Amino acid sequence: MVEARARIVELLRSSTQGHTQQATELIRAMALPEQKAILHCANLKSVNLDGAELRGLFLDGAVLWRATLEAARLEAARIRGADLRGSNLEAADLRGADLTDSDLRGSNLYLARLDAAVLARADLRGARLMDASLRGADLRGADLTQADLRGADLREADLRDASLQGARMQDANTAGCLRD
Fold first, then answer.
1. CATH class for the region spanning 36-180
2. pTM of the model
3. Domain map of the chain by residue range?
4. In tens digits, what is the pLDDT along the chain, a chain of 180 residues?
5. What is the 3-state secondary structure (H, E, C) of the chain?
6. 40 vs 16: CA distance, rounded Å
């Protein structure tokens, strides 16, 4: 498993579309429950995973600083405590993903799909979430200071104990939102 992990990280860090596809195929081939933690704490700084199929993957504690994950499929992925500062997650599908305690400062989440995602205590300071869908998302205790939520769908989201100081929320739909 250690060799497989090293090969996957090597392929992902190469930042070529062919290598990314090979890595995602290898990840899928190893999708047995006992192997889901294969990329736990992996260093994937500045990696290009545009359009990658990473559904259900465990990336707890991974370093994805300045990574490019545009239109990536990360539904139900577990990305707890990860460093995603400055990452591009434009139009990424993160429905049902768990990003508890993750650092997403300055990340681009424009048009991202975060319905039913868990972002409890996540650091989203200065994040761009314009037109993102966060319907039913758990944002309890999240720091959304200076975040851009213009046009975002926050219906039924849980914003209790979240910091929204300076957040831009024009045209955001907050119907049924839970707040303090």
1. mainly beta
2. 0.87
3. 2-35, 36-180
4. 556 667 777 766 665 556 666 666 666 565 544 445 567 788 888 888 888 888 888 889 999 999 999 999 999 999 999 999 999 999 999 999 999 999 999 999 999 999 999 999 999 999 999 999 999 999 999 999 999 999 999 999 999 999 999 999 999 999 999 998
5. CHHHHHHHHHHHHCCCHHHHHHHHHHHHHCCCHHHHHHHCCCECCCCECCCCECCCCECCCCECCCCECCCCECCCCECCCCECCCCECCCCECCCCECCCCECCCCECCCCECCCCECCCCECCCCECCCCECCCCECCCCECCCCECCCCECCCCECCCCECCCCECCCCECCCCECC
6. 22
Look up residue 59 and give its two tokens: 């990336």
Token pair recorded at residue 156: 């039924």
